């Protein structure tokens, strides 16, 4: 009796590469503010702190420099929470004002996956500005439009 093949052709690279893949997909263009609330003495707060660190990486900040990341540290045994306040166009698209993730029982990868599923999809589409022409290309186009004049 043989075991049939199921799965991928190659092995997974691990949790670190999965977090890296999800981090590349994070897009905060549809977000005004991210508020992260946690109790530093709680047991399951490590993943929330790691997510806070990952939000401050230059690549994520570059997606929306106007997005404010605020931390609220509380000592009342409140569960960890990540709250995304959306811009108006994202509010209309998702039909909610803000998105809250209760992150106390989630690991870092799951928080990033939820962020990509609910937040990155709400980002407004980029407008295509067209191709930027160099000075030489502009002169070439302008020169082609002129007729060659014969000398008399």
TrEMBL record:
Transmembrane segments: none annotated. Pfam families: MRP_L53. It comes from the Eukaryota. Its main location: mitochondrion. One of its GO terms (cellular component) is mitochondrial large ribosomal subunit. It is found in: Mitochondrion. Keywords: Mitochondrion, Ribonucleoprotein, Ribosomal protein, Transit peptide. Belongs to the mitochondrion-specific ribosomal protein mL53 family. This is Large ribosomal subunit protein mL53. It comes from Musca domestica (House fly). The gene is LOC101898234.
């Amino acid at each position: 009796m043989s075991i049939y093949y199921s799965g991928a052709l190659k092995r997974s690279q691990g949790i670190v590469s999965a977090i890296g893949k999800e981090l590349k997909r994070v897009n905060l263009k549809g977000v005004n503010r991210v508020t992260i609330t946690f109790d530093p003495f709680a047991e399951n707060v490590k993943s929330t702190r790691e997510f806070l660190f990952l939000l401050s990486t230059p690549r994520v900040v570059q997606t929306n420099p106007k997005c404010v990341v605020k931390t609220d540290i509380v000592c009342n045994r409140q569960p960890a929470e990540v709250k995304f306040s959306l811009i108006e166009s994202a509010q209309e698209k998702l039909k909610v004002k803000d998105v809250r993730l209760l992150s106390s029982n989630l690991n870092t990868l799951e928080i990033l996956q939820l962020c990509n599923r609910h937040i990155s999809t709400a980002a407004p589409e980029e407008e295509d500005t067209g191709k930027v022409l160099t000075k030489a290309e502009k002169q070439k186009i302008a020169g082609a439009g002129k007729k060659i004049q014969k000398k008399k």
